[in-house]
Amino acid sequence: MSASRVLVLNSGSSSVKYQLLDMRDSSRLAMGLVERIGEQTSRIRHTHVGDDDTRERSGPIADHDAALKAVAEELAKDGLGLDSPELAAIGHRVVHGGKTFTEPTVIDETVLAEIERLIPVAPLHNPANLTGIRTARALRPDLPQVAVFDTAFHTTMPESAARYAIDVRTADEHRVRRYGFHGTSHAYVSRATAKLLGRAPEDVNVIVLHLGNGASASAVRGGRCVDTSMGLTPLEGLVMGTRSGDMDPAVIFHLARVGGMSIDEIDTLLNKKSGLVGLCGDNDMREIRRRVDEGDEEARLAFDIYIHRLKKYIGAYYAVLGTVDAIAFTAGVGENAAAVREAAVAGLETLGLAVDDTLNAVRGDEPRLISPAGARVKVAVVPTDEELEIATQTYALVGRY
CA 206, CA 209: separation in Å to the nearest integer? Predict the structure, then answer.
């Protein structure tokens, strides 16, 4: 395939993130963000990587159609326009693919209809993803466009991990099961960890800890996900910035019956006013650690609850895998918060887990080991690259056509 560029689009409800990559060497040519779409204070920030030039402009951007046209204009200024014959495809991040989409998929009307049918299980994300896809297809109807699904990597989970223990007919009728999210990150990081160890992915068992404002864990056996912490929605699992993670479902009934809260109010509470921000008023781990260091007990408790849940998942996934070769920390908190990494494995020495204080304190953009020399289980920091993963999957797929 002569054309080698892939444009990656991540369309949110009021934003579009994008990157243009050259897949001959996986290099970034340009990247940017359009935010506050639909407001008078819309803004686009664009970086041309080749000459390290960053441009920013503000002003009303009415909708996603206008946003993508603005992206096209910025790219054209750098000689990288959407009409370039070098552009091979556009890869779209789609959050929820259900059980249907187990791999990247070339988008057609049937695919669009199925993504739309999945809106009830991803009401916050799939509508925005669809809007971005439809707008991009209108701009370049002749170009292959590929959907890469957050859930796809987790479709290898066995039914024993994916099923909830509720009535089977009810679950099937309403598609209630554990799907998992952050799949592109877990796929990329598990492979990158195997590479760091000098081994093939199929020969390595890895626990991946994607710790950002949203957080998830996965157990990856031989390159295939066998369990993950998020479920039907991204609410299940670890303590997150604003999400509660695991909780007795009866809390919802209690809040409705005793607290008089509506379903929408409870939804908002658990997704936007819980987690770290609910516990201590902050969802930025840097601020929480600063408060801990100053003796703030509320912040200390929030940090301890966060770590307690994290340790539970490390232990659980160690049991699921039986043998663990490495634990990989990734995303904003995982890559940058040395205190989180240290606390997460503290006391787990009998499982072969430990970090070297000096190595753990080092900051960097490259994958690296932070466990002591000779450790039975390697502990690694592996920066994630979801855009590269989407571009790689997109390019591999269109190259087969």
Answer: 10
What phi, psi does 360 have (nearest 5°)? -65, -30
Residue 28 has a CB neighbour count (10 Å cut-off) of 18
Instruction: Give the residue, 269 or 98, on which the prediction is more confident.
Output: 269
> What pTM, to 2 d.p., does this model score?
0.92
Question: Judging by beta carbons within 10 Å of its beta carbon (0-12, 13-18, 19+), is residue 61 exposed, middle or buried?
Answer: buried
Which residues are 11's β-sheet partners? 16
Question: 259: alpha, beta or left, given left = phi > 0 and alpha = psi -120 to 50?
Answer: alpha
Contact by Cβ (8 Å): 266, 252: yes
What are the pLDDT digits (tens) for 80-103?
Answer: 988 889 999 999 999 899 888 999
Tell me the C-alpha to C-alpha distance, in Å, between residue 132 and each of 19, 96, 109, 306.
14, 15, 14, 34
Q: Is 203 a catalytic residue?
A: no
For 131: left if phi > 0, alpha if psi spans -120 to 50, otherwise beta; the answer is alpha
Whether the CB-CB separation of 235 and 261 falls below 8 Å is answered with: no
Region label for 180, one of left (φ > 0), alpha (ψ between -120 and 50) or beta (otherwise): left
- Dist CA 86 CA 212 (whole Å): 34
Q: Of residues 150, 227, 282, 385, which has the active-site annotation?
A: 150
At 327, the amino acid letter reads: I
**What's the token pair of residue 372?**
């002591």
The per-residue pLDDT for 400 is 63
- How would residue 401 be classed by pLDDT, with cut points 50, 70 and 90? low
Q: Strand 205-211's sheet: what is its strand order?
A: 224-228, 215-221, 205-211, 326-330, 378-381, 368-369
Which distant-in-sequence residues (6+ apart) come within 8 Å of 238 by Cβ? 211, 215, 216, 217, 229, 245, 246, 306, 309, 310, 313
Query: In the 8-state DSSP scheme, what is residue 233?
Result: S
Print burial letters for 205-226: b (CB count within 10 Å at least 16), e (below 16): bbbbbbbbbbbbbbbbbebbbb
261 to 117, 270, 279: CA distances (angstroms):
29, 12, 20
d(CA 245, CA 334): 17
